Structure formats: structure tokens, C-alpha cells
Amino acid sequence: MNINIPWIISRRRKLIAIILDYLIISSLYNFIFYAEFDTYPIRIVTTSFVIFWVIVSYILGRYSSVAKLSIVCILKDLFKTFILIVLCNLIYLSINWGYPLLFFWNSKSFYNLELRELSNLFIRITLYLGTLSFIFQYSFKLLTNNIIDQKKGWIFYGSKEKFDQISNEVSFNKKKIILTWLSHIDNLESIPIKNIKGVIIGDFSIKENVDIIFKLKLKGLKVESLLTWFENELHRIPTHILDNKFQLIERLKPIEDNYQIRAKRIGDIFVSIVLIFITSPLAILIIILIFIEDQGPLFYSQIRTGINGEKINIVKFRSMKINAEKDGIQWSQKRDQRITKVGKLIRATRLDELPQLLCVLEGSMSLIGPRPERPEIESKLLNELPYYNYRYIIRPGISGWAQVNYPYGASISDTKIKLSFDIYYIKHSSILLDILILFKTIKLVLNAKGSNPIK
Known about the structure:
Elements: H1 6-9, H2 12-37, H3 43-60, H4 71-95, H5 113-147, E1 153-158, H6 160-170, E2 178-183, E3 196-201, H7 210-218, E4 222-225, H8 226-234, H9 245-249, H10 259-294, E5 299-305, E6 311-317, H11 341-348, H12 357-362, E7 366-368, H13 375-384, E8 397-399, H14 401-405, H15 412-428, H16 431-447
């Protein structure tokens, strides 16, 4: 498996933090357990606990970078660690016969001394682990910020018009990037290398500058084409900067019946079944709330475009008022009056998409992939956005790389940006990337973010 892919490289600090946290937590858990009982815990129990610890830590944002030491940042990290400890104990104690009921039960026949001692030990262990993990993670954040994250500047070498265009493109990204313009008529050898990460080669021929570029590389600077820079740094492939179709075609993976596609399909079925089982009580509650609000239909179906341009039918929990589209099909807008009270809640948490798990089981959709669009809207997008039909090369998904990196699209300009993420996903699609998107989706759902249009 090729690990030299941008979304992994750019997250190397976070990956190192996760790996070190995993090793520290598993080692300390085993050490404390052995010190108490002179034996090691069951391996599957330790592994399950540590994996849960790492996943919840990632969702809570405990591995995110921090720029400086501040009381606010410390308190936020402490609160996240506290939430993690509480969740670990709630699950552990619930599995072990509902230990919190000790506040109401005093029967020795129901709770024995050994169970009580084990539960108290687990509480102490999570407090120790939480304290150590908090100190280590915050120290690691400060250390890596001072060592790794200082060189953030990039020099764009090209025309002012192209520089302004690129500056506008990167303005919405969460990742803050400092761009400096250097005219293509200026001397490349005059580039100051202090606090500069690299040089972006813009819209000019580099043949006469090969020797200078070579010297810049020897100084430790990255030198990248504009398209490669977008791909490596922002994890997008904007189609409007392509000079020709071949630049895009050579970046797309051949879609064939390989082991990753088969594994993804098996994963789609397994995860969908698990999610349907887990969320079924929530789905019943949503159905009751929708019915109570206006006694209208519980579900809403739409025709959308799937793989190879085929038309598919998707189902959602109804989040809009009855006859919301009597004036025609249109994008949802910010503070859309057509959305019901229940609809606002289930849209914010993405729970309106739950019925699409049945579409995943059926095979018309995947858990992860470009979001399918309605043909009525798509006919306009195909005329306005070059390469939009390249999204048909892969099965559409409930969530995708565009959805976890950009808010709800409510215009052609939004769709243009989301297309750049979709194209990137198609090139770099893998099981690992799908897992990352799945975790990011869970994080968005819990934070109730990304469901509202920008405008």
C-alpha cells in the first residue's frame, strides 16, 4: 500500500500523537493492572479499551494542534479529557451490571465485593491515564508547534492575476497558509528562504529556470506546480486550474474490481447493519416527532444521479414542510423557512440521512463517496462546471471528503469548491481515507456542524 499520500503526510503530527497515546495508555493500563493483581488483563479487553480511548479522543479533538499556551486552551483540553474519562467509565460500569445503581442498591447478592473493587480500580486507572495523557498531549502540541509548524509560508511565482485567484481559493480553508507573491519576471535566486516552506510554480514555462529550481531544492525548499501544491497542501484538485483534460485523467485511479472495492462493499454492509441496529431507537423517536409536528409524510424520496450516471432513488426523513417545493426545485438557503422545527434538528445532526443506510445495503450508494445530486440541478451544473461528470466514476455516498471539509453547498460556487474535494477523493480513495472520513463525519454529527449553507 502506498503511504506517500498527501492527507497522511499532512497529518503526520496527529498520527504520531495518536500512536504515542495508544502506546502510553496500553502500557500504563497493563502496568497498573499487574501491580494490583499480579497478572495482566485480558488482551482483547485492553485493546478494546485503548482503541475506544483513541477514537473518542480524536472525535473530541484532543489530538489537534495548539499555537500557544493559554488558560482557555488548557481548560478546553481539560474538559475534553474529563468528557473522555466519563464516557469510558459510563460504558465500563454499564457493561459491568450497571455499577451506578450502587447509589440505590445495597444488596450484596446483586453486587459482590470483587466487582466493586474492579470498578473502583477502573475509575482510578482512567483518572491516572487521563492526567498523564493530558500532560503528554499538551506538551507534544507545544513542542511540535515550535519545531514543525513554524515554516508556513509559501511563495507563489507567477502572474499577479493568478496569485489573486489562488489567494481567494485558499481563503476559506481551515489550514492557515501564508502566501507571498513573486512576479515571474523577478529572479528566483533572490527568494528569501527564512520561514519559507516552498515555492509554487505558477503559469509560466520552467525550462529556463530548471537550474535555479534545482538550487532551491538543495537549500531545502519544496518546489511544486500549482496543481500538485493544491493536492498536497489543501487536499483538493480545483478543476479550473487544469490546463487540459489529461492532467485530470492521469490523476484518476482506474476503477476496477480490486480488493479495496470488494473490502469497501463488505465494510459498507457490515457498518450499515450495525448503524441501523444502534440508531433504530433514535429513528423511531424521529418518526414520532415528525408526525407530531404536522402529521405529514415521515419520509421524503428523491431521484438522484448515481454511478455511471444512472438514476437512483434515495430516501430521507422529511425535514421540510409539506409541499415545500411547490414553487419548483431549489437549493436550501440559510434560515430556510421551508424547514420544519424537527427538520432543523435532524439536519444539524445529519440524522435525516439515516434511511439512506438502506440504499447502502441495496448497493445504489456507499457510506463514503461524492454526494449524489438531483438531475434537475445537475443539468445546470454540467453546463457551468467542467469535469463535473467525472464524479460518476464512483458510487455516491452518504458522506464524503467534500462534506467533512466544506459546509452545505447552496450555489454553483459552493459546488465548484466541493467538486475539487470530490476529484481529490476519487484519486486517493482508499479504505484508510474512508475510515478517516467516517470519523470526521461522526465528529461533525456530534458537533452539529456543516449542515447549514454559508449564505
